[in-house]
Each structure stands twice: as C-alpha cells, then as structure tokens.
TrEMBL record:
SUPFAM superfamilies: Pili subunits (SSF54523). Signal peptide: none annotated. The chain crosses the membrane at residues 20-45. Residues 156-184 are annotated as: Disordered. This is Prepilin-type N-terminal cleavage/methylation domain-containing protein. The keyword Cell cycle does not apply. It comes from the Bacteria. NCBIfam families: IV_pilin_GFxxxE. InterPro entries: N_methyl_site, Pilin-like. The keyword NADP does not apply. Keywords: Membrane, Transmembrane, Transmembrane helix.
Length: 255
C-alpha cells in the first residue's frame, strides 16, 4: 500500500510577533483613548472645583446679605444714602457709592419706659449707612461693602451706656473715607469683598420703589421706607468676570 503526502504546507506565522505597523497603530489608538479619558477627568475636576468655589462664595454672600437684612429688620426707617435722600436725611459719602441709611431705635431696657413714662426708643436712635467702595490691597477686587454707624459696637443701651451722645439720626451725615475704625462714637468696618456689577447690569426695581447703590450692591427702597429689596453680586474669582447673585426682600419694624 502506497501513501502519498502532498500539498502539505506548514504555517510558520504562529511563531511570528506583531509587525511594526501593528504596534504603531495600537500605540496611537491607546494614546487617543488615554488622552480622551484624561481630558474628561480634568474636566470633571474643574467642574467640581468650580462647584465648590461657587458654593463657598454664595455662602459668604448670603452671610453678608443676612447681616444687612437683620439690621434692616431692627430699623424703623430706610432711606437712600446719598445727597438726594429726602426725607428725612442728607448723607454724604466721601469715597464710594451710597446704598441706604437705616434709622434704628436703641433697644429697650427691661422696663421699656423712662421716668416720665415715655418709651426710650422713641427718644433715642442711631444711624447705620451701607455703601460700596474699592477694595483695599489684599482684599478681593474690585469692590467691598462698608458699614458706618454713629454708634459703636456693642450697641448703645437706652440709658446711653457705651454711647452717651449719639448724633441725631435726622441730621446730615458725612461718612469718611473707608477705614476700619471702632472708636468711642463710631463703628466703621467692611462687610464683604469681591463685589462687582453683573454683565447684565443693575436690577430693575418694582413700581413704588427707587433703585439705589452700585458697584455690585443695590437696594430697591420703597416710598413707605418700610420695605427694601436687596441685590448683592459677587465675583466667582479674581480671574473671571462671572458673578453670583443673591437677593432678598426685607421689611422694617412696624414702629
């Protein structure tokens, strides 16, 4: 019996590696995948950082706005803090833009009345002025909110302790240039920095109110001097013009 073996071909390719072209193609594909993944990862990190920064910034702005709102709730009158304010006062801001002027009754003592039976807060009050001005070196630009009062902290009591002779709340008032001061008769300090106008411009006030302020802090003061709409704009960072808005509506005390 005869056996024939023909046309048998042994495949030597099983012992071969990748060609140079195959290696280059695989390397390029892997580089593209890594680059895309890296770009996506960096983008996620940037978005997370921006969200954290915005949350922190909004929290700071809300704290400042709440401070102002709480002081308005203690006031009996809110008027514009500029040379045209009438009634009842004229306010001159030496360096900056006036926003509003509050007339705040002195807190009552336990008895609530003096020897003649008259309520103390009807006889004694102090003045608080809020205005905006440029930020100092080391503070976030471009602007800051300042608070000036003719009564120092702690607040005066009804008998005059801490502030024997506060200037009349109905008199003309000149606010000096920004300078942190806590003396025997004044309190002058900044509230928050990094304030700037939004790209959309100043807010629009409802009917029956007048817009006051500027440089990122605005108040719509109603003609009854008992209601204020507050708008505060802060920059997200010193390297961007993007701003964050916080706002609220506040009412003064009824008497």
């Amino acid at each position: 019996m005869n056996f024939y073996i023909k046309n048998i071909k042994f495949n030597d390719d099983v012992n071969k590696g990748f060609t140079l072209i195959e290696v280059l193609v695989a390397t390029i594909i892997m580089a593209i995948v890594v680059a895309l993944a890296g770009t996506a990862f960096v983008g996620i990190l940037k978005q997370n950082r921006k969200a954290e920064l915005e949350s922190e910034r909004r929290s700071n702005l809300n704290r400042a706005l709440n401070y102002v709102a709480n002081e308005i709730r203690m006031a009996k009158t809110v008027v514009a803090a500029d040379s045209t304010a009438s009634p009842p006062t004229t306010t001159t801001i030496t360096s900056g833009t006036g926003v509003m002027r509050l007339i705040i009754p002195v807190p009552n003592p336990a008895s609530g009345v003096d020897a003649s039976g008259t309520k103390f807060y009807n006889n004694r009050s102090y003045t608080v002025v809020y205005y905006t001005s440029g930020s100092w070196t080391g503070w976030d630009s471009p602007n800051s909110i300042w608070r000036y009062s003719n009564a120092r902290n702690p607040l005066p009591d009804a008998t005059g302790t801490n502030n024997p002779n506060p200037s009349s709340s109905s008199a003309a008032l000149t606010v000096p240039s920004p300078s942190p001061t806590s003396g025997t008769d004044v309190d002058h300090n900044f509230l928050v920095d990094g304030i700037q106008d939004p790209s959309s411009g100043a807010p629009t006030c409802p009917s029956g109110s007048t817009l006051r302020g500027g440089s990122g802090f605005y108040a719509c003061i109603y003609t009854n001097t008992k209601q204020v709409d507050l708008y505060l704009y802060g920059n997200l960072s010193n390297t961007t013009n993007e701003t964050i808005e916080v706002k609220t509506t506040v009412f003064t005390r009824s008497n």
